[in-house]
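ok posting inputs for the serine job
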Amino acid sequence: MSSKILIIGACGQIGTELTIKLREIHGVDNVIASDINTRNLDLVNAGPFVILDAKNFNAIKDCCINHKIDTVYLMAALLSATGEKYPMEAWDLNMNSLFHVLNLAKSKQIKKVFWPSSIAVFGPSTPRTQTPQHTICEPTTVYGITKQVGERWCEYYHEKYGVDVRSIRYPGIISHKAMPGGGTTDYAVEIYHEAIKEGKYESFLSENTHLPMMFMDDAIKATTEIMAANSEHLSIRSSYNLSAISFSPKEIAESIQAEMPNFKITFKPDFRQAIADSWPSSIDDSVARKDWNWSHDFNLHTMTKVMLRELAKTYKS
Ligand code: SER
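and the output
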Protein backbone atom coordinates (compact mmCIF):
# COMPACT_ATOMS: atom_id res chain seq x y z
CA MET A 1 0.00 0.00 0.00
CA SER A 2 1.27 3.45 -0.88
CA SER A 3 2.31 5.80 1.92
CA LYS A 4 -0.12 8.56 2.95
CA ILE A 5 1.83 11.67 3.84
CA LEU A 6 1.18 14.92 5.73
CA ILE A 7 3.57 17.84 5.27
CA ILE A 8 3.30 20.45 8.02
CA GLY A 9 4.69 23.82 6.94
CA ALA A 10 4.28 23.00 3.24
CA CYS A 11 4.26 26.64 2.10
CA GLY A 12 7.79 27.30 3.38
CA GLN A 13 11.05 27.26 1.42
CA ILE A 14 11.74 23.53 1.79
CA GLY A 15 8.10 22.44 2.26
CA THR A 16 7.11 23.80 -1.15
CA GLU A 17 9.65 21.74 -3.10
CA LEU A 18 9.33 18.72 -0.83
CA THR A 19 5.58 18.64 -1.55
CA ILE A 20 6.20 18.70 -5.29
CA LYS A 21 8.78 15.88 -5.09
CA LEU A 22 6.76 13.66 -2.74
CA ARG A 23 3.74 14.00 -5.03
CA GLU A 24 5.88 12.87 -7.96
CA ILE A 25 6.94 9.81 -5.95
CA HIS A 26 3.71 8.89 -4.14
CA GLY A 27 0.95 10.51 -6.24
CA VAL A 28 -0.76 13.87 -5.74
CA ASP A 29 -3.66 12.56 -3.65
CA ASN A 30 -1.35 10.70 -1.25
CA VAL A 31 0.43 13.88 -0.12
CA ILE A 32 -1.58 16.32 2.01
CA ALA A 33 0.06 19.74 2.19
CA SER A 34 -0.69 21.92 5.21
CA ASP A 35 0.30 25.30 6.60
CA ILE A 36 -0.97 27.93 8.99
CA ASN A 37 -2.16 30.05 6.06
CA THR A 38 -2.49 29.98 2.27
CA ARG A 39 0.47 32.27 1.52
CA ASN A 40 1.71 30.11 -1.37
CA LEU A 41 -1.25 29.88 -3.75
CA ASP A 42 0.55 27.81 -6.39
CA LEU A 43 1.16 25.16 -3.75
CA VAL A 44 -2.32 25.47 -2.24
CA ASN A 45 -3.97 24.95 -5.64
CA ALA A 46 -1.69 22.11 -6.76
CA GLY A 47 -3.31 19.32 -4.72
CA PRO A 48 -4.86 18.46 -1.34
CA PHE A 49 -4.23 21.28 1.15
CA VAL A 50 -5.46 21.90 4.69
CA ILE A 51 -4.98 24.84 7.05
CA LEU A 52 -3.17 23.45 10.09
CA ASP A 53 -1.56 25.05 13.13
CA ALA A 54 1.55 23.03 14.02
CA LYS A 55 1.03 23.98 17.70
CA ASN A 56 -2.44 22.40 17.83
CA PHE A 57 -2.16 18.71 18.77
CA ASN A 58 -5.83 17.89 18.20
CA ALA A 59 -5.85 19.53 14.79
CA ILE A 60 -2.82 17.47 13.68
CA LYS A 61 -4.32 14.31 15.14
CA ASP A 62 -7.70 14.86 13.46
CA CYS A 63 -5.98 15.54 10.15
CA CYS A 64 -3.97 12.31 10.46
CA ILE A 65 -7.12 10.30 11.29
CA ASN A 66 -9.26 11.90 8.56
CA HIS A 67 -6.66 11.38 5.84
CA LYS A 68 -5.32 8.03 7.15
CA ILE A 69 -1.82 9.52 7.36
CA ASP A 70 1.10 7.19 8.16
CA THR A 71 4.06 9.56 7.61
CA VAL A 72 4.53 13.17 8.75
CA TYR A 73 7.18 15.65 7.56
CA LEU A 74 7.31 18.44 10.14
CA MET A 75 8.76 21.42 8.26
CA ALA A 76 7.23 24.28 10.30
CA ALA A 77 9.76 26.25 12.37
CA LEU A 78 10.93 29.71 13.33
CA LEU A 79 14.50 30.06 12.02
CA SER A 80 17.62 31.56 13.57
CA ALA A 81 17.26 35.29 12.93
CA THR A 82 13.51 35.40 13.70
CA GLY A 83 14.08 33.24 16.76
CA GLU A 84 16.40 35.87 18.24
CA LYS A 85 13.62 38.45 17.89
CA TYR A 86 10.88 36.19 19.26
CA PRO A 87 12.58 33.67 21.59
CA MET A 88 9.48 32.35 23.35
CA GLU A 89 7.53 32.00 20.12
CA ALA A 90 10.44 30.05 18.59
CA TRP A 91 10.59 27.74 21.60
CA ASP A 92 6.81 27.29 21.60
CA LEU A 93 6.47 26.46 17.90
CA ASN A 94 9.67 24.47 17.40
CA MET A 95 9.31 22.29 20.51
CA ASN A 96 5.56 21.77 20.80
CA SER A 97 5.07 20.87 17.14
CA LEU A 98 7.79 18.24 17.51
CA PHE A 99 6.23 16.77 20.67
CA HIS A 100 2.83 16.62 18.97
CA VAL A 101 4.18 14.61 16.06
CA LEU A 102 6.43 12.38 18.18
CA ASN A 103 3.50 11.63 20.51
CA LEU A 104 1.29 10.67 17.56
CA ALA A 105 4.01 8.23 16.50
CA LYS A 106 4.41 6.94 20.06
CA SER A 107 0.67 6.16 20.19
CA LYS A 108 0.99 4.43 16.78
CA GLN A 109 -1.36 6.91 15.10
CA ILE A 110 1.42 7.42 12.53
CA LYS A 111 4.37 5.21 11.60
CA LYS A 112 7.16 7.49 10.46
CA VAL A 113 8.38 11.04 11.11
CA PHE A 114 10.80 13.36 9.34
CA TRP A 115 12.02 16.31 11.38
CA PRO A 116 14.76 18.69 10.19
CA SER A 117 17.57 19.77 12.44
CA SER A 118 20.22 22.31 11.46
CA ILE A 119 23.85 23.38 11.56
CA ALA A 120 22.50 25.75 14.25
CA VAL A 121 22.92 22.96 16.85
CA PHE A 122 26.62 23.85 16.81
CA GLY A 123 28.10 26.81 18.64
CA PRO A 124 31.31 28.79 19.17
CA SER A 125 32.97 25.93 21.09
CA THR A 126 32.37 23.42 18.24
CA PRO A 127 35.35 22.63 15.95
CA ARG A 128 34.65 24.96 13.01
CA THR A 129 36.03 23.03 10.05
CA GLN A 130 34.89 19.58 9.01
CA THR A 131 32.70 19.51 12.12
CA PRO A 132 32.29 15.85 13.12
CA GLN A 133 28.98 14.04 13.64
CA HIS A 134 29.62 13.68 17.37
CA THR A 135 31.12 16.85 18.82
CA ILE A 136 30.57 19.72 21.27
CA CYS A 137 27.14 21.29 20.74
CA GLU A 138 26.69 24.49 22.75
CA PRO A 139 24.37 26.57 20.55
CA THR A 140 23.99 30.28 21.34
CA THR A 141 20.76 30.94 19.42
CA VAL A 142 17.23 30.08 20.52
CA TYR A 143 16.73 28.29 17.21
CA GLY A 144 19.88 26.24 17.79
CA ILE A 145 18.77 25.35 21.31
CA THR A 146 15.38 24.13 20.02
CA LYS A 147 17.10 22.00 17.38
CA GLN A 148 19.62 20.53 19.82
CA VAL A 149 16.93 19.67 22.36
CA GLY A 150 14.71 18.35 19.57
CA GLU A 151 17.49 16.01 18.49
CA ARG A 152 17.74 14.62 22.03
CA TRP A 153 13.98 14.02 22.11
CA CYS A 154 14.02 12.30 18.70
CA GLU A 155 16.69 9.89 19.90
CA TYR A 156 14.82 9.39 23.19
CA TYR A 157 11.52 8.56 21.46
CA HIS A 158 13.32 6.15 19.15
CA GLU A 159 15.16 4.38 22.00
CA LYS A 160 12.32 4.29 24.55
CA TYR A 161 9.23 3.99 22.38
CA GLY A 162 10.53 2.61 19.08
CA VAL A 163 9.45 5.71 17.14
CA ASP A 164 10.79 5.70 13.56
CA VAL A 165 11.97 9.31 13.43
CA ARG A 166 14.61 10.40 10.92
CA SER A 167 16.45 13.69 10.78
CA ILE A 168 19.20 15.62 9.04
CA ARG A 169 21.06 18.77 10.03
CA TYR A 170 20.35 20.97 7.03
CA PRO A 171 22.96 23.55 6.10
CA GLY A 172 21.79 26.81 4.45
CA ILE A 173 19.46 25.85 1.59
CA ILE A 174 19.48 27.73 -1.72
CA SER A 175 16.44 27.62 -4.00
CA HIS A 176 14.57 29.64 -6.61
CA LYS A 177 10.92 28.68 -5.96
CA ALA A 178 9.79 29.78 -2.44
CA MET A 179 11.81 32.34 -0.48
CA PRO A 180 13.44 31.39 2.83
CA GLY A 181 12.30 33.43 5.83
CA GLY A 182 14.16 34.56 8.89
CA GLY A 183 17.40 32.60 8.51
CA THR A 184 21.04 33.65 8.73
CA THR A 185 21.90 31.86 5.48
CA ASP A 186 19.12 33.68 3.54
CA TYR A 187 21.67 36.06 2.00
CA ALA A 188 22.75 33.25 -0.34
CA VAL A 189 19.24 33.22 -1.87
CA GLU A 190 18.64 36.99 -1.82
CA ILE A 191 21.90 37.62 -3.66
CA TYR A 192 20.65 35.79 -6.78
CA HIS A 193 17.32 37.64 -6.79
CA GLU A 194 19.07 41.00 -6.47
CA ALA A 195 21.63 40.05 -9.12
CA ILE A 196 18.81 39.51 -11.62
CA LYS A 197 16.68 42.47 -10.48
CA GLU A 198 19.30 45.11 -9.63
CA GLY A 199 22.69 43.81 -10.73
CA LYS A 200 24.00 44.43 -7.20
CA TYR A 201 23.61 43.19 -3.62
CA GLU A 202 24.49 44.36 -0.11
CA SER A 203 25.38 41.35 2.02
CA PHE A 204 24.39 41.27 5.70
CA LEU A 205 27.31 38.89 6.35
CA SER A 206 30.95 39.90 5.93
CA GLU A 207 32.89 38.87 2.84
CA ASN A 208 34.87 35.97 4.30
CA THR A 209 32.13 34.31 6.37
CA HIS A 210 32.19 30.69 5.19
CA LEU A 211 29.05 28.65 5.94
CA PRO A 212 27.89 25.17 4.93
CA MET A 213 25.31 25.42 2.12
CA MET A 214 23.36 23.19 -0.25
CA PHE A 215 21.26 23.52 -3.40
CA MET A 216 17.59 22.65 -2.87
CA ASP A 217 17.65 19.67 -5.26
CA ASP A 218 20.31 18.06 -3.08
CA ALA A 219 18.38 18.83 0.13
CA ILE A 220 15.23 17.23 -1.29
CA LYS A 221 17.23 14.24 -2.50
CA ALA A 222 18.71 13.79 0.99
CA THR A 223 15.25 14.05 2.58
CA THR A 224 13.58 11.49 0.34
CA GLU A 225 16.58 9.15 0.52
CA ILE A 226 16.85 9.09 4.30
CA MET A 227 13.10 8.42 4.49
CA ALA A 228 13.41 5.55 1.99
CA ALA A 229 16.47 4.04 3.70
CA ASN A 230 16.32 0.69 5.44
CA SER A 231 15.68 1.45 9.11
CA GLU A 232 18.41 -0.96 10.22
CA HIS A 233 21.04 1.03 8.33
CA LEU A 234 20.36 4.22 10.30
CA SER A 235 22.83 4.42 13.17
CA ILE A 236 21.88 8.01 14.08
CA ARG A 237 18.44 8.79 15.48
CA SER A 238 19.26 12.27 16.73
CA SER A 239 20.20 13.93 13.42
CA TYR A 240 22.72 13.33 10.64
CA ASN A 241 25.38 15.84 9.63
CA LEU A 242 24.80 16.67 5.97
CA SER A 243 27.12 18.59 3.71
CA ALA A 244 27.48 19.67 0.10
CA ILE A 245 29.29 22.97 -0.44
CA SER A 246 30.78 25.71 1.67
CA PHE A 247 31.39 29.29 0.53
CA SER A 248 31.58 32.91 1.65
CA PRO A 249 29.65 35.95 0.36
CA LYS A 250 32.76 36.92 -1.60
CA GLU A 251 32.95 33.52 -3.28
CA ILE A 252 29.26 33.37 -4.21
CA ALA A 253 29.59 36.90 -5.64
CA GLU A 254 32.55 35.74 -7.74
CA SER A 255 30.55 32.80 -9.06
CA ILE A 256 27.78 35.26 -10.09
CA GLN A 257 30.37 37.59 -11.68
CA ALA A 258 31.58 34.66 -13.80
CA GLU A 259 28.10 34.73 -15.42
CA MET A 260 27.32 38.45 -14.98
CA PRO A 261 30.61 40.39 -15.03
CA ASN A 262 28.95 43.68 -13.99
CA PHE A 263 27.43 42.29 -10.78
CA LYS A 264 28.50 44.33 -7.73
CA ILE A 265 28.59 43.31 -4.07
CA THR A 266 29.00 45.40 -0.92
CA PHE A 267 29.11 44.24 2.69
CA LYS A 268 27.18 45.62 5.67
CA PRO A 269 27.11 43.00 8.45
CA ASP A 270 24.20 43.22 10.91
CA PHE A 271 23.16 41.16 13.97
CA ARG A 272 23.16 37.98 11.87
CA GLN A 273 26.96 38.15 11.61
CA ALA A 274 27.28 37.01 15.24
CA ILE A 275 25.00 34.04 14.53
CA ALA A 276 27.03 33.07 11.46
CA ASP A 277 30.27 33.42 13.44
CA SER A 278 28.99 30.85 15.95
CA TRP A 279 28.39 28.20 13.25
CA PRO A 280 30.82 25.83 11.49
CA SER A 281 32.33 26.70 8.12
CA SER A 282 32.25 23.11 6.83
CA ILE A 283 30.73 19.80 7.94
CA ASP A 284 31.95 16.19 7.99
CA ASP A 285 28.99 14.11 6.83
CA SER A 286 30.81 10.79 6.39
CA VAL A 287 28.31 8.94 8.62
CA ALA A 288 25.40 9.90 6.32
CA ARG A 289 27.49 8.93 3.31
CA LYS A 290 28.21 5.54 4.86
CA ASP A 291 24.81 4.72 6.41
CA TRP A 292 22.47 5.66 3.56
CA ASN A 293 24.84 6.41 0.66
CA TRP A 294 24.30 10.16 0.72
CA SER A 295 26.10 12.14 -1.98
CA HIS A 296 25.48 15.62 -3.37
CA ASP A 297 25.31 16.67 -7.02
CA PHE A 298 25.62 20.47 -7.13
CA ASN A 299 28.70 22.62 -6.58
CA LEU A 300 28.75 26.42 -6.33
CA HIS A 301 29.26 26.91 -10.06
CA THR A 302 26.49 24.54 -11.24
CA MET A 303 24.10 25.94 -8.63
CA THR A 304 24.78 29.54 -9.70
CA LYS A 305 24.05 28.70 -13.32
CA VAL A 306 20.66 27.15 -12.45
CA MET A 307 19.71 29.91 -10.00
CA LEU A 308 20.44 32.73 -12.48
CA ARG A 309 18.73 30.92 -15.36
CA GLU A 310 15.56 30.10 -13.39
CA LEU A 311 15.25 33.50 -11.69
CA ALA A 312 15.74 35.29 -15.02
CA LYS A 313 12.71 33.33 -16.30
CA THR A 314 10.70 34.12 -13.15
CA TYR A 315 11.30 37.86 -13.31
CA LYS A 316 10.70 37.99 -17.06
CA SER A 317 7.25 36.44 -16.66
N1 SER B 1 19.06 28.27 7.30
C1 SER B 1 18.91 28.23 8.72
C2 SER B 1 19.08 29.57 9.32
O1 SER B 1 19.85 30.34 8.79
C3 SER B 1 19.89 27.29 9.32
O2 SER B 1 19.27 26.08 9.57
O3 SER B 1 18.49 29.84 10.31
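notes: The longest strand covers residues 31-35. The CA atoms of residues 52 and 116 lie 19 Å apart.
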